[in-house]
Design goal:
Helix content is 77%, strand content 3%. A two-stranded antiparallel sheet has the order 1-2. The chain starts with 11 loop residues before the first helix and ends with a helix. It contains 9 helices and 2 strands; from the N terminus they run αββαααααααα. The protein is mainly alpha-helical.
Length: 270
């Protein structure tokens, strides 16, 4: 289990950590909901093949590609904080307890650096996803054939992501992400070790969440309902005493959804 049991009253530093983390989480949830509702009111662009492309992948009137990328990454960063904080907080609390005796001010600073390192990895993933999504959106707008193939491709991605949840690879990634004991070099209590620890747990988390995040991207990055379901799945498989059944349940649901999307795409193309 990745969370050490808390056996006594929290110190002032621990209470500050929990309070600040809670405020950041609440603010990110509010911002994500606001952003999602705003995107919903904007609608999307109807595409050949019977699907609708989110305008988040393309420049709006008067926007440059750089501005569009900045808007997407800002949205992505806030969304990742909202989605990952419930699972990250116990991991960072465990990290705080593993560091040998720094002053409390240093402990808070090291915890913040580890958190920043963690979300830096997610930001890099967001940049990669934007480049891929914008490229696919541009290709779909330029080619009716690409656009018509998109629904089937999306269904296949969801199907594959669901199957991934049943693999030994997923189990190993989930075990690493859940345990995350921290290497000896991460417990030295230095700025570089805290940053490196954040990068390490961020990378392991991205790998563990590959399936659920692929499902979210296909169903709609800013779809609040899909986001809530994926967040509960990720948090559950990370924090439950045994996360494997939750991972497999998520996989089964994704396989069913993928088959439905594939069938709908096939019927639409007929």
């Amino acid at each position: 289990m990745s969370v050490l049991p808390h056996t006594g009253p929290r110190s002032p530093s621990e209470r500050l950590y929990v309070g600040v983390s809670g405020l950041i989480f609440a603010a990110s949830v509010a911002a994500t909901i606001g952003w999602g509702l705003s995107m919903a009111t904007m609608g999307g662009m109807p595409m050949a093949g019977g699907w609708t492309m989110s305008m988040g992948w393309m420049p709006m009137c008067g926007q440059t590609w750089l501005e569009t990328a900045g808007s997407f990454l800002g949205m992505w960063g806030v969304m990742m904080i909202a989605m990952m904080m419930p699972a990250l907080m116990p991991m960072l609390e465990r990290y705080r307890r593993s560091i040998a005796g720094p002053p409390m001010a240093s402990l808070d600073w090291l915890t913040m650096l580890a958190g920043l390192g963690y979300f830096f990895i997610w930001s890099l993933l967001g940049a990669i996803l934007f480049l891929a999504g914008a490229g696919l959106a541009t290709a779909a707008m330029a080619s009716p054939e690409v656009s018509q193939a998109a629904p089937l491709a999306g269904g296949l991605v969801v199907l594959a992501a669901g199957a991934l949840q049943f693999t030994a690879w997923k189990t190993r990634r989930l075990d690493r992400c859940r345990e995350m004991p921290g290497r000896e070099s991460d417990r030295i209590g230095t700025t570089s070790s805290a940053w490196n620890h954040g990068l390490h747990i961020g990378l392991q988390c991205c790998l563990s969440c590959a399936g659920p995040m692929a499902i979210l991207i296909v169903l709609g990055v800013m779809d609040l309902r899909a986001m809530a379901v994926v967040t509960m799945a990720i948090t559950g498989e990370r924090l439950a005493p045994d996360g494997s059944p939750i991972a497999r349940a998520t996989g089964a649901a994704a396989i069913g959804t993928g088959l439905f999307l594939i069938m709908r795409a096939a019927l639409g193309a007929a």
